[in-house]
Design brief:
By secondary structure, the protein is of the alpha+beta class. Helix content is 15%, strand content 28%. The protein has a five-stranded mixed sheet with strand order 2-1-6-4-5. The longest helix is centred in the middle third of the chain and has 9 residues. Bound molecules: FE2/S2 (inorganic) cluster. FE2/S2 (inorganic) cluster binds next to loops.
Length: 109
């Protein structure tokens, strides 16, 4: 029996970065695992809101907004309508396209 880890394609504009996000993994963690820098202050704890994205396509493939994320979106003064999400809370179940400036490959040191 073959064992396959399910992944979902998330496209990031305007950089054109394509990320394979695993089932149950949040977008921020996937970007880190794959070697990308994603704007953050809190390091993925859901408190800084620096990681927020605009969902352009695939809102139906996004996880529901949890209470911590709702708080963060409201603090950004954005409507909680599924179009603004925190990358460190966002899980996906299918292809999604987001806009986030500042996502780029980490420089090797
Ligand atoms: S990384 Fe800080 S809120 Fe998402």
């Amino acid at each position: 029996m073959t064992h396959r880890v399910a992944g979902h394609r998330v496209s990031v504009r305007p950089s054109g970065v394509e990320l394979e996000v695993l089932d149950g993994e949040d977008l921020f963690s996937a970007a880190q695992r794959l070697g990308y820098r994603w704007p953050t202050v809190c390091g993925g704890k859901g408190t800084c809101r620096t990681c927020f994205v605009a969902v352009e396509e695939g809102t139906e493939n996004c996880s529901p907004v949890d209470p911590l994320e709702r708080e963060g979106i409201e603090a950004l003064r954005k409507p909680v309508d599924g179009l603004t999400r925190l990358a460190c809370r966002l899980r996906v179940e299918g292809p999604v396209t987001v806009t986030k400036r500042g996502v780029r490959r980490r420089v090797q040191e």
